[in-house]
Amino acid sequence: MTEWIEILVSVLLIIGGTFIVIGSFGLAKLPDFYTRLHAPTKATTLGIGSVLMASMVVHTINDGSVSIHEVVISLFLFITAPISAHMLSKAALHRRVEHLQSSLSSHNRDKAARQLPGDAELDADAD
Amino acid sequence: MLELAMKITAGMVLVAMALNVWRLLLGPSIPDRILALDTLYINSIALIILLGIYNLSALYYEGALLIAMLGFVSTAALCKYLLRGDIIE
Amino acid sequence: MIRRIFPMPVHSLLLWLVWLLLNDFSAGHIVLGGLLAWGIALVASPFTSAQTKVVRPLLIPVYFAVLLWDILISNLDVARRVMGPNRSLRPGFVALPLDITGDFPQTALASTISLTPGTVSVDLSSDRRWLYIHVLHLDDEAELIASIKQGYERRLREIFAC
Hints:
The complex is a heterotrimer of chains A (127), B (89) and C (162). Chain B is mostly helical and 89 residues long. Chain B contains 3 helices and no strands.
């Protein structure tokens, strides 16, 4: 393995590790469930993508043939991350998980929980 | 140098997983815990891929793929359970 | 007639490619993968429902290039906001009026929104005309809606012609 490849792989690994830590840090630190949803779906997915790219480079050099297995995992994660985020937020709306008091336009949350159209009038007395 | 970078990255992933476990235990709501579990399995994929780079073996890749698939399916099933009280309708 | 033998050509091709990526490009796997891709499509085709047709497939790589770039930018943006103090965050819920129709195009749009700058799609209204989005930091609601409509919905409508 030449020095340049080593530097490339190291940089990819460090970038990936940084994004993974930021994603999990956001998960631990952000104030309510809906904001917490943002950090892992984006940062962690990119972090994994970066680590997988490093693995691709290493295995390509090591085996002497192009290793593209890792692309499948990255693609799979990029397709599934938004879907699990969507299912989680749907579950949270259904269970009426509290949102941050300072959230803007929180009337939209109540409409979303009942799947009403965006221009519908929300009567305060309902449930 | 690669050795050092791998150790640093493994340390970062471990810190990330510790933070996830913290959120998993703390909650407060059930969707929060599922989200923590979801992030935890994605981070474990990173750890396994790192092990694969460290040992220069492509075998670990299969394990990573299995975790990715089962993790997604279990997250979806747990959410479905919260939504409907039932997984297969 | 050709539809009876190859009921889902695009799905078969994708299955075959994924099989080859998971294994290797040797002759045996090319044959085995081809047989599986054909057989699974034959068995699975009665379960599928009609989907919106892709009209301009050449625009799909352009869409993915734009998306990949935005994913990179969005990660830097979200990382900056996550590391900042909590009280400077102004999260909010936004109702996005949808012009796009069809199951698959709407799913593609919702997934795109979830992957890009500080936005997660939360739910769809029951009449499928409104998509609810949670925004990590809301500066200007009208501007955000306009940028999503211009950046992604317009491109998706060109691809699917709906």
